Protein: TonB-dependent receptor
Amino acid sequence: MSFASPRRTPRRLVIALSIASALAAGTAVAQDASQQETQPSDAPARTATLQTINVTAEKRTEDLQKVPISMTVVTAEKLEAFGQAGDGVLQLASRAPSVYAETSYGREFPRFYIRGLGNSDFDLNASQPVSMVYDDIVQENPILKGFPLFDLEQVEVLRGPQGTLFGRNSPAGVIKFESRKPTQETEGYARVSYGSYGTANAEAAIGGKLSSSWSGRVSALAQHRDGWIDNDYTGKKDDLGGYNDRAVRLQALYKASDDFDALINVHGRWLDGSAMVNRANAITLGGDQFVPGFDRDSVSQDGRNKQHLFTWGSNLHLNWHFGDLNFASITGLERATTYSLGDVDGGYDASGTPAKPSSTNRITPFYSETADALPKDRQITQEFRLSNDSAERLKWQVGTYYFDEDIAITNFSYDTLNNHALNGWVDQSQRTKAWAVFGSADYNFTDDFDVRAGARWSHDKRDFKAERFLGFTGPVGPLTSQPTDARWSGDLTGTWQLSKNSNVYARIANGFRAPSVQGRINFANSISTAKPETITSYEIGYKSTSDDNKLRFNADVYKYNMHNQQLTAVGGATNVTQLINAKKTEGYGAEFDLEAYLTPNFYMTAGGSYNHTELKDRNLAVAPCGGGCTVIDPLNASGNALIDGNVLPNAPKWIGTWTARYGIPYGESGEFFVYTDWNYRSEVNFFLYDSEEFRSKPFLEGGIRIGYNWDFGKREVALYGRNITNKKVITGGIDFNNRTAFVNDPRIIGVEFRAEL
Structure:
């Protein structure tokens, strides 16, 4: 078949796909006919009833419907349906109510927002109010947060403060990733796909019994896309936008008895490709649309662009069982290095001449070619937990937590017009040590009334230093900051059972984010330190399942007050990034999740949210754009924009998601199917100030899969499409010297094959 773009496939990719295809064929041959029937890759079950979803949101295994927290579970089947086109962790944006994500770094450094709360800071030590936890290990540095999604059991999205069990830096919520664990049963799968723009994925896993006490599992992922963006300035075709992203995970589980088990996990990721491709003067003056003649497939840039990333880590889970007591030890080590170089202004200097005349004016007032490097990132975590048997009327757990992070950051700038000579060099270092003690209890007063309560004492200390060795105004520093903070956080929840399959709950929770430091001093002579932010959230929720298990519906309403919210004033006319605190931020909204079998062959899910955010600080002002834009906010005497009353950046008011699957049985074990998913988010503002230009229009994106599975779902072939309407939307901007934009990926159409043991 033909695809949307006749891009050539590199020979090494053809070889890789051939190997992966052979692995898939081998998987098919190795099928054990005695194993249980498995399901199609994007169907939750072959039956017409919903299955129980078990979660570990409160560090115990519980039924989703019994956990009194606003949360959404994204199953492995959904992740696979979304991910054929090379999507990374950013694919979770708008896949759950109140969840949004964006980046200015390409395939690394995702920035997540829950209920409007997030952080747009792009420095490599930026803290985030959304905590990402991978196999019970917090991924603190933003570079670690982009680990690809493959061979996962599910993703749990916990909305609202999680200050008791997850502690520091989780005032907005937590996103938990659970990988598939080894078992004594031989199992595995292989999955390959190829689509337009040379987009290729190869993914496989195999696991099973190693001995009577040991089992193992190995899984791997390779993702590739050809360069597809022409650089008219250099005359190079298909110069930018490509990548090679690879990841591997190895696990070994020891379990000789029911009294003790040990799980070791080793994982790594290698990424090479383009950094974010910026588009100079792409936004119309006075509006939030593309300039006439804008072409997503071409740029005119005189700066360089490349990106390299390597991360690896290991964790050890030890569990002891003593009668009705359980003791767990979780030890984690994560390391990362990266170098990301880009043409920040997104165009070319007036003295240059592109090899091909540009369709739009891509000349910028001055050039900006910068790179961020992370030569060292070492994170060590240790958690101990003691809990009782979950079958007791009183369930409790206590624990301790330790966190130690040591990172080094280097910021470079280059003289584009002088053969890209180095003209700026800043070093940053940060050592963070934190510890906490926590406890929670859950008591069933009656069969219909339950109370949960928890508290955590946290202590956090940072030791930060920044020094500029080379720059526009000469050396600066070393500049230092040593913020320290210690405080309580906790929650209180009451749950009332209305019937066998429905309950309501009310929850009060608070949380905090530790003090942050911003030392990006390429163009500044001082660093900035933000005070800790605190939040108190109020939530009422309803959870229900129909008596016939064909409908699941959960909903909640919430309100929060945040004090001293940490915000990042990015760029603007001063071209300086700094941290600030807002006196108060208010938010409120509503969320729902729905899952249903409308007929035995027609399954659908839906979710949606309304999120209102508002800054409350009459004197808070930030520098507006420096590249020419229409500022809506009033200006103070210094010419800065007063942002009191503004919504938070990257906080869409409305989010909606919908999936549907219809199957037509064929023969004894086969099925034709159609699967589609659609995700909507309303308008978002990119910066703290409001302008007509730096915001994104409402965006609806859809995907589709049409295919056939057989052998009870163990084999599947499908055609897929992502962004099937080929919608073109501005997803971010840079405002310091022109109206620079980021844009979404084009439509990808491809074919996929999957086989399971």
Remarks:
- Helices lie at 11-29, 76-82.
- The chain is about 5% helix and 55% strand.
- The radius of gyration is 26 Å.
- The CA atoms of residues 342 and 428 lie 20 Å apart.
